[in-house]
């Protein structure tokens, strides 16, 4: 067994729109500093940003520099999701917690500092792309009795379902203006957008142990039997 393994339950949580609000602050910054209107209800960001002076849609590739600039200079704008801190304190009393955030590795220290400023002092792991492989590495390290993954993005739920099917998957969208327009991710076990209810659900899943694995697909011979 890995020397770092604790055997305790493990919570692996996303940060933006799970622990800290981001998109509404990003919208306000785009409006204030760049005269860009950001329609939060649009799921496709390639159609969501419009230049106020020309009415032109900001193309997808041009959005990333704005996001980079936001995280370079505006992380102080981000606010704590209601009840998140209390939930982490409650869960952390008997479980390990890791924040798995999709930022470049060079932003690991600023994210740690940002979270500490909100009273959240847990290990932060930066990731790019699907989070399934990174979560698998954490499972190999911690060897938890059970694990729960929390994220606001459906494709991350899918990534974890593919690489770590034994992990319970909770879909959470903390921004109400976005949550009301997004269905539950198909690959999640539950959708909860309030940390008070989420903490109850997470602790119940820890008590159950690993999530049940999906039934294996039938072979052609079995389907024809």
Poorly predicted ranges:
none
Amino- and carboxy-terminal Cα gap: 43 Å
Main sheet summary:
6 strands, parallel
User: How would you sum up the global shape?
Assistant: globular
What tags apply to this protein structure?
single chain; 225 residues; alpha/beta; six-stranded parallel sheet; two-stranded antiparallel ribbon; 9 helices; 10 strands; 16% strand; globular
What features would you describe in this structure?
- 40% of the residues lie in helices and 16% in strands.
- It has nine helices and ten strands.
- Strands 7-6-1-8-9-10 form a six-stranded parallel β-sheet, with helices on both faces. A two-stranded antiparallel ribbon has the order 2-5. A two-stranded antiparallel sheet has the order 3-4.
- Helix 3 packs parallel to helix 8 and helix 5 packs across helix 6.
- The longest helix is centred in the N-terminal third of the chain and has 14 residues.
- It is globular.
- The chain starts with 9 loop residues before the first strand and ends with a helix.
């Amino acid at each position: 067994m890995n020397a770092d393994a604790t055997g305790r339950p493990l919570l692996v949580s996303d940060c933006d729109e799970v622990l800290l609000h981001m998109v509404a602050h990003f919208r306000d910054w785009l409006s204030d500093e760049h005269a860009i209107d950001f329609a939060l209800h649009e799921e496709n960001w390639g159609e969501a940003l419009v230049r106020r002076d020309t009415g032109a849609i900001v193309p997808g590739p041009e959005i990333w520099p704005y996001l980079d600039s936001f995280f370079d200079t505006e992380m102080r704008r981000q606010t704590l999701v209601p009840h998140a801190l209390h939930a982490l304190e409650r869960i952390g009393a008997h479980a390990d917690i890791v924040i798995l955030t999709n930022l470049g590795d060079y932003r690991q220290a600023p994210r740690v500092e940002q979270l500490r400023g909100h009273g959240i002092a847990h290990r932060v792991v930066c990731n790019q792309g699907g989070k399934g492989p990174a979560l698998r590495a954490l499972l190999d390290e911690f060897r938890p009795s059970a694990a729960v993954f929390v994220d606001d993005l459906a494709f991350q739920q899918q990534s974890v379902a593919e690489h770590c099917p034994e992990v319970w998957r909770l879909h959470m969208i903390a921004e109400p203006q976005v949550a009301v327009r997004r269905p539950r991710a198909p690959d999640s076990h539950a959708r909860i957008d309030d940390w008070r209810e989420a903490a109850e659900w997470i602790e119940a899943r820890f008590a159950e142990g690993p999530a049940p694995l999906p039934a294996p697909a039938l072979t052609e011979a079995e389907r024809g039997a």
